[in-house]
Amino acid sequence: MKIGILGGGIMGVCLGYFLSQKGVEVEIFEAGPMLGGLAGPMTLADGTTVDRFYHAILSSDAHLRQLCADVELTDQLRFRETRMGFFYQGKIHSMNNVLEFLRFPPLGWIDRFRLGLTVLYAQFVHDWQALEQINVEKWLLGLSGRTTYANIWRPMLKAKFDGSFDNTPATYIWARLVRMKSTRSGANQKEAAGHLIGGYSTLIEKLAERIEAAGGKIHRNQTITKIVVEQGRACGVVVDGQFLAFDKLISTLAIPITPHLLPDASQEYLDSLTQTRYLGIICPLMVLDRPLTGYWTLNLTDDNLPFTGIIETTSYIDPQFVGGHHLVYLPKYTAPDSPLQKLSDAEIKELWLKHLELMFPQFDRSCIRYFVVQRARYVEPLHPLNGYSLLPSICSPIQNFYLSTNAQIYPTLTNGESISRQARIVAEQILADTH
């Protein structure tokens, strides 16, 4: 059996690995020069390779850590204790133990109790289906109260969803609270995060080696222009004007891209795919000669700031592994029609730095080694209220054509753990259909 995989992101490469290890001949087609997609690398001007976007591996990421073990990369994993904080009214407030929690200025005693109750309550919720029927605002107001919602949750949600989250279910914040709580262990509940030396590309390139060793092929800089469907059955693809035949095809591309490749599909199926909406991202990487805050995640409660948060990955990545640099990601999640996406890289840089200087008066631009603006149009799928029924199916109405995308990951958040797990699920489905 010969299977073609559209897209060489982490989903496509994981999928190719799982299938190839079961004796399936796979070919992966990646439009860009590098594998990994959003989890791929970029090279700085001095030759240092770093992740394009910010990523962390948690101690609770059992599937991903097992995958690293399977390809003999466990010795490349590093974990370190980290800190999380809130930026509120011009000051950083650490939130890493009970004492700091009780001192948090925006909240009174009752509010702090209710915020802690919200975090605790989320850990005991197992019927997430009930949560997808409840608006996230209503759920948080009921648990945390108006003061906590106004000072903490609302600005964070507004920044994350680019202003509008009226149709967002409570499953979003529930999944976030469960995942972040999983980073804390031991009696003192210290937070830890980890990485692979060399970033996610270390894993992706190792998986690619295993695929090719098993007889698979990986094509870089190869754009598929059409999925050929004959009599309701996918039979191949068109690449550079050439038809290539396959027994089965799997698209790992963002859902909005797929309809353009399926001119022969039914309008009903194409319409079903257009129901999935995505957030895009503008994510500058600021490379410094010193730490900025020392916090892994700095949550921002001022929704007038142009970026969603401050992520300092060298709080858990030793700078020796990234050229001696300190890496600070300044993401802004955007709606597809956001005016920010129309700004040039130079305009983004000036706007971002102007606000950083207001936040941190001591910040000196001379400490910036590089400022690289990364963008992506389709990053995180938006799941609406009662959205489970709208998830794209793995099996399509087109015979021998499958979908394996982050839009199918729900209610958990999209990350390396959930993507690698979804790739295994899809591989098992395809193998079951074959037999």
What does it look like?
The protein is an alpha+beta fold and 435 residues long. Helices cover 31% and strands 25% of the residues. It has a domain at 2-40 and 199-276 and 392-434: 3-Layer(bba) Sandwich (FAD/NAD(P)-binding domain). α1 (10-20) runs parallel beside α9 and α6 (136-144) runs antiparallel to α7. The chain has helices at 10-20, 62-70, 98-102, 109-123, 128-131, 136-144, 146-160, 171-181, 200-213, 267-273, 345-359, 416-434; strands at 2-6, 25-29, 41-43, 49-51, 77-82, 84-88, 91-94, 184-185, 190-196, 217-219, 224-230, 233-239, 242-245, 248-251, 277-288, 297-300, 309-312, 326-329, 332-334, 368-382, 401-403.
CATH architecture tag of the domain at 2-40 and 199-276 and 392-434: 3-Layer(bba) Sandwich
Query: What top-tier CATH class of the domain at 2-40 and 199-276 and 392-434 fits best?
Result: Alpha Beta
Distance separating the two termini: 11 Å
Query: Mean pLDDT, rounded to whole units?
Result: 93
- Looking at the structure, the CATH topology of the domain at 2-40 and 199-276 and 392-434 is FAD/NAD(P)-binding domain
Q: What key attributes describe this structure?
A:
alpha+beta, FAD/NAD(P)-binding domain, globular
Overview in brief:
The chain is an alpha+beta fold. Helices cover 31% and strands 25% of the residues.
Secondary-structure blueprint of this entry?
Layout: E1 2-6, H1 10-20, E2 25-29, E3 41-43, E4 49-51, H2 62-70, E5 77-82, E6 84-88, E7 91-94, H3 98-102, H4 109-123, H5 128-131, H6 136-144, H7 146-160, H8 171-181, E8 184-185, E9 190-196, H9 200-213, E10 217-219, E11 224-230, E12 233-239, E13 242-245, E14 248-251, H10 267-273, E15 277-288, E16 297-300, E17 309-312, E18 326-329, E19 332-334, H11 345-359, E20 368-382, E21 401-403, H12 416-434
Helix pairs in contact: 1-9, 1-12, 2-12, 6-7
